[in-house]
Specification:
single chain; about 350 residues; alpha/beta; Rossmann fold; 2 domains; eight-stranded mixed sheet; 8 strands; elongated
């Protein structure tokens, strides 16, 4: 219900100058004004539809094609088993969003802010020097006079350029729903000068909620609250989710997501990352997980305005926390319908 009409209804009901019949007539007239064909209502709706068509592209053409242009306003769920590269890809998304001026807020309650930066510097070092780059564990502690390395310096400069609009939020404000909501409200209400704000939560199951009984209720509350925030402030929210242990060696589906009832109904998009050969009879999860370069695929399980079920093969290079794609700067454009 439109807030304007809701207030008008309350005013009419409280007005003692109206008879009961007059109140009914006035309420009926106001209800009629809510019809989509009344006055300028359709024009207002078309403006909302135009805004809905704006996407935040990932910068990876294949992924943007899969997502019909990129991530849209709403609640987007990104799920995968451990070791599949979901945080790696989410961090790459975050850098891409930031690099072309989109304010990006990354709530990291699984890994620390320092670990995320180490992963990013490792990736940049590989892009600069290939196998002569630094693994994340080498960056931790800045061992062996790492600060003096030319590759390390260049990797830091490269990451810094990408991270101008990227904020990491650590455990102090990323492990409880109330803290997350408060900070998201600040970004949604005041902004930072960007046309759009992207919120990434890594990850969903690590967030506490007051007054709930059990994981299912907790997750249901989480997705409803995040969905409401995305809608209220027109935010792109990407929440990373774990999957059931029973799903580690199987093709992922909605039931693979932990306590997935709320996710299935509230999410605008559900994107999963899984091993490419997961459906083969001879698939060995441990063997595939130990490979230096892992053959993965992205699959859309739910997308309100697009296709689902089409796999996109990708490579994951865990040594340098990298999922390689052609580096291409996208242009922001409003989605146009295809005939």
């Amino acid at each position: 219900m439109n807030k304007k009409f809701e207030g008008e209804f309350a005013r009419i009901m409280a007005d003692e100058n109206y008879s009961q019949d007059e109140k009914v007539a006035a309420l009926q007239a106001n209800l009629s004004k809510m019809n989509i064909g009344h006055g300028n209502n359709l024009d207002s709706m078309l403006e909302c539809i135009e805004e809905y068509g704006v996407t935040v592209p990932t910068g990876y053409p294949e992924i943007d094609m899969l997502l019909k242009g990129g991530f849209r306003t709403g609640l987007n769920i990104f799920a995968a088993p451990p070791g599949s590269g979901k945080s790696t890809l989410a961090l790459q998304f975050a850098e891409r969003f930031s690099s072309w001026g989109t304010q990006t807020v990354y709530f990291c309650n699984d890994m620390s802010e320092e670990e995320m930066v180490c992963k990013a510097i490792s990736r940049h070092s590989y892009l600069i020097a290939g196998e002569q780059g630094f693994e994340a564990e080498q960056v931790v502690g800045l061992k062996n006079n790492l600060r003096q390395s030319d590759v390390f310096k260049r990797a830091c400069v490269s990451f810094k350029e990408n991270a101008e609009k990227l904020t990491f939020v650590g455990d102090d404000y990323s492990t409880h729903l109330n803290d997350i909501k408060r900070l998201i409200e600040h970004y949604g209400t005041y902004g930072t000068g960007s046309d759009q704000t992207v919120i990434i939560i890594d990850y969903l199951q690590n967030i506490a909620v007051d007054g709930v009984n059990g994981d299912k209720e907790r997750l249901d509350v989480l997705v409803r609250e995040l969905k409401a925030l995305a809608k209220k402030h027109r935010l792109v929210i990407i929440a990373i989710s774990s999957v059931n242990r029973n799903s580690y060696g199987r093709e992922l589906s909605m039931t693979s997501l932990k306590e997935s009832g709320g996710i299935e109904f509230c999410a605008d998009l559900v994107l999963v990352l899984q091993f490419e050969r997961v459906g083969d009879d001879d698939f060995d999860w441990k063997k595939e997980s130990s490979k230096t370069i892992r053959d993965m695929e992205l699959v859309v399980l739910k997308q309100r305005m697009g296709r689902i079920g089409e796999p996109l093969p990708i490579k994951y290079y865990p040594k340098f926390d990298l999922i390689p794609f052609m580096d291409k700067r996208p242009s922001f454009s409003k989605a146009q319908s295809k005939k």
